[in-house]
Specification:
disordered N terminus
Amino acid sequence: MELNQSNFSTVFETKTQSVSDKLADFKTQRDQLNVKVRGQLDRRNEINGQVKELITEVQKQKTLRNEANSRVAELRKIRLEKTNELKEIRSKLRSSVDNNDRDSGKKKNGPSSRKVREQMNKLEWRHQTGQISPKKERDFFTTMKRLQAEFKTLKKSEEESSSSVLKEVKQAEKRQQKAHDAVTDASEKSEEAHSLMMELSNEVDRLRGLANSEHLGLTSTKGNADDLHNKYIISLRCIHSMQDILKLTGSKRDQDAERVDVTDLMSRLMEGQTLSDEDMMLLQRN
């Protein structure tokens, strides 16, 4: 169709309606995308906040782990000292026992408590089997009494010679066990802190991936929203341009109607009401 003075109004009114439909569609889509952008932005910021908190906790657990590792190293030195001390005392005890055995085997030092016990057992067996006559029972009881006293004396002497060393061994064993338990406890704390630190680090990596994904989606959505906004503005300008042409070529009635619209818009603006983009463009044009 050829555009001329007579068909300006018909052509432009048709085009204006078509562009107006597009304008409304662009505005709706743009507003929907802006809402989506806001949601993606909030989710990204929330995830980044969680990441920041987790990183702080990771550093805390790392500090605890390092402190525990230092404590383990110190306690291992102490445990080694206690272990060496225990070995020395046990060696001392073995030497004492060996010396007692050698001494007890020497005739000049007399029989050992074990030899005396063997003599007592033999005499007891002979008495029980009737090998000792009634006439010699007095001698039997006298001998048994003497051997019992000798056995007690020898036994006490032997025990005293090694009891102090044995006591030292037991005390050293307790100290060594205490040092070992301390190492074990510190090692467990270090392992717990390390495991938690690694777990939190993995969670940080996972959340960072989510945050990056949200950011990429946000960027894409915002780009689409900006494109629609630009199309909306271009469509709005096209409508205003066509309206300007219609105003220049239109009737007096149309001009009066537009002035009424402007007056109404000014009244709404003075009352503090919010005007649409189209309304603001109309005011600026007039």
